[in-house]
Amino acid sequence: MSEIFELTAAELSEKLEAKELSAVEVTKAHLERIANVDQQVHAFLTLNEEALATAEAIDKARAEGSHAGVLAGVPIAVKDVLVTQGMPTTAGSKILEGYMSPFDATVVEKIKKANLVQLGKTNMDEFAMGATTETSAFGNTYNPWNLKTVPGGSGGGSAAALAAFETPLALGSDTGGSIRQPAALTGTVGMKPTYGGVSRYGSIALASSLDQIGPAARTVLDTALLHDLIAGYDPRDGVSINTQWPSMADAARAGSTGASLDGLRVGVIKQLDSNEIQNGVKSRFEETVAWLTKNGAEVIEVEMPSIELAVQAYYVILAAEASSNLSKFDSVRFGLRVTPENTTSFEDVMSATRGAGFGAEVKRRILLGIHVLSKGQYDTIFTGAQKVRTLVINEFQKAFEEVDIIASLTGPETAWNIEQSSDNPMRNYLKDGATIPANLAGLPALSLPIGLADEDQMPVGLQLLGAAKNDDLLYKTGAALEQMVIDRDGSAVWRRVPTTLEETR
């Protein structure tokens, strides 16, 4: 049998239900794995001191015949943007260092009620501003595939923890690709649900019209199982959708067991084809499109000219909303307070606190946000960005009249070396060109690994986008593609994480 920490969430669920494993055994295995490898990976900021006690309570309930839940006893990691009782919530920022929330985020409430075991909180770019998990005030996270490379961001901690077998499940947030892009760079799976499909209550806001909480795992089925658990209406979230969602897990199972792709119309966006795409990444994408065609899908090229302006519009909207959302960190209500000598001025205290508490990237985006919302700029820059957003939404609506699903690369290249990230911040922004449009339009999008690039043997991610509320179709198609990779290569991508951490596996 594989090591306990190498089992998928679905496999762990079966063994726990059959009492072949106990929740305590499973939790101990993952905590030991974290102890062995996280000094190299730095995926976690905080570990849950109550994890084993929670596992013991789950085992006791199961022994007494209580129905514990489908994923009861399965470990999970939580991105540190989600507030949690009993563990600090920092959002990767010094300004919130040590902050203890008096309540749980809705999704955290749900995983507790379902008897999952929280292992701890994962590292992230400060206030989710970044694409590499290098802007965290608490140090970098490293990609388990190659410790010299980035794990993506802002949710690089959750993705790296999955790839390093420190947890089988994770929660993240996605404002412009922060679940999907790290999934692509680490050979894991990440889902941005339809906007409003999963409650954001208790998530520290970056850009409220773009943020979405979502699941991540190593397999499509595991991701779908977690999605089923956290989805649903929440009256505390003003944009929460009050609807009955189909089972994402059932859709994933159908896709992995040979459901026909006959008649599936798959769109490929012409404007996302670029000469800057890494050769090995492009090759995996072309192979995947060819496989879809061979297996009955119809591949259709779609035109979306506004996509070329999406990144610029996104960063204007994000900065404007972020500058507003972060105004609450004023040294008075909660978080860090810095009092300069020889002053009693509130303005001086607030300035000193924000100066010491916020990192460079956060300050850069706050200043941009203030600028685009200022008199003389709002009507040109901010309104112009919103007009581009409307164009993106309209073009997606038109595209989904012709196709059922859209396939693209999640990003143009595999994980890059850490020292390259600070050379040109704008270059990192532009790498999100494929992921950002889904957030602008509020659409569901799934990233899954489709193989390794020839040049560096690093993971390549495929993104599937669907019309609003068609999340289940992404899981069905994604599971079929996941099985294609297994049949073609002999194993899933996530099982091939190389020698970086081999000595402790």
Describe what you observe in this structure.
The protein has 505 residues and is an alpha/beta fold. Helix content is 40%, strand content 12%. It contains 16 helices and eleven strands. Strands 1-3-2-4-6-5-10-11-9-7-8 form an eleven-stranded mixed beta sheet, sandwiched between helices. A hairpin with a 6-residue loop joins β10 (445-452) and β11 (459-466). α2 packs antiparallel against α3 (51-63), α8 packs parallel to α16 and α10 packs across α13.
How many strands in all?
11
SSE pattern:
HHEHEHEHEHEEHHEHEHHHHEHHEEH
Shape: globular
Oligomer: single chain
Termini gap: 13 Å
Count of helical segments? 16
- State the secondary-structure class: alpha/beta
Biggest beta sheet summary: 11 strands, mixed
Spatial extent as radius of gyration: 22 Å
Helical fraction: 25-40%
Strand order, sheet with most strands:
1-3-2-4-6-5-10-11-9-7-8
Beta-strand content estimate? 5-15%
Low-confidence stretches: none
Mean pLDDT: 94
List keywords for this structure.
505 residues, 11 strands, 40% helix, globular
Topology:
Elements: H1 9-17, H2 23-41, E1 44-47, H3 51-63, E2 75-79, H4 106-113, E3 117-122, H5 156-163, E4 169-174, H6 180-186, E5 189-192, E6 212-217, H7 220-230, H8 248-256, E7 265-269, H9 279-294, E8 298-302, H10 307-325, H11 346-357, H12 360-372, H13 378-402, E9 405-409, H14 425-430, H15 436-441, E10 445-452, E11 459-466, H16 471-489
Parallel strand pairs: 2-3, 2-4, 7-8, 7-9
Antiparallel strand pairs: 1-3, 4-6, 5-6, 5-10, 9-11, 10-11
Helix pairs in contact: 2-3, 7-8, 8-16, 10-12, 10-13
